[in-house]
Amino acid sequence: MKDPLFRTDRVVAPERCPACASPAIVTTAKHPDSESYWRCTACGEVWNVSRRQPERQEVRGWR
Ligand SMILES: [Zn+2]
Q1: How far is the CA of 45 from the centre of ligand 1 (A)?
Q2: Left, alpha or beta for 33 (phi > 0: left; psi -120 to 50: alpha)?
Q3: Per-residue pLDDT of the chain (63 residues; tens, 9 = 90+)
């Protein structure tokens, strides 16, 4: 039995583009999660939520 609340990687939908800070972002996913890709309609930036964890400076070397 899987408990969705037990997931450690809680994903919050981004509010702004990480590149230009525009709120004009869209996702192709109906239910955005860590696998979802987001696109900025202002500058064209495309990113994946799971690869854009907010400022986890303790974890390096993921590149
Ligand atoms: Zn942008």
Answers
A1: 5
A2: beta
A3: 666 555 555 666 788 999 999 999 999 888 888 788 999 999 999 998 777 665 555 656 666
